[in-house]
């Protein structure tokens, strides 16, 4: 799959929306049917291009949420977080309908990816919609039937903002090799044992893998979150070469 994930990545393809579902009140998953999709690795992203009737074009990059397509079905999932002042995301969350087409190019990226042949434990650190490529890794791990233990630390503003919350709970229940811990920065669920707070050393030290286990660490989210999380990992003694980061604009 790694080889096919490179082939054709610069080609624009007409992707048809086959299905859509809301993950939160402001985030929507698009299931796209992409003919001749070359396959992808969990952690990669795609470029999406929209063209207006007057010819104006807008382009944005979005992480792939799905594991690699099975049986060459060519289905690619993107989870889009609406930005109220955005140029592309409001259309993708509120306007595009099943049967509509958008242009898609990819997959893109070869560093921030997880491969099933890895044998190291994995710590995933997500801020907001930065969980999307990490969810692809969790799904790919399950599909591949590998045994590497995964720990996800997921920072969100409120419980209502958490993407894939039901699926994550189900996967933790059914898979002893997956642990998930939420960090709530604005509002916690009823009965939560701690007040709202940002990601800190204590959370990473308690819920991530210790550096002695030599885990692979993947960090994705807004720039400030990624910088903080990476600094914490280094301060705790993790090897910088094992820390892979992916960031996007905005605030956490």
From TrEMBL:
Instruction: Write out the entry's keywords from A to Z.
Output: 2Fe-2S, Iron, Iron-sulfur, Metal-binding
The GO molecular function terms of this record are: 2 iron, 2 sulfur cluster binding; oxidoreductase activity
Q: Which residues form a coiled coil?
A: none
* Cited InterPro entries: Cbr1-like_FAD-bd_dom, FAD-bd_FR_type, Flavoprot_Pyr_Nucl_cyt_Rdtase, FNR_nucleotide-bd, MRET, OxRdtase_FAD/NAD-bd, Riboflavin_synthase-like_b-brl
Q: Where is the FAD-binding FR-type domain?
A: 10-114
Q: Which cofactor does it need?
A: FAD
Q: PROSITE patterns annotated for this entry?
A: FAD_FR
Q: What is this protein called?
A: Ferredoxin-NADP reductase
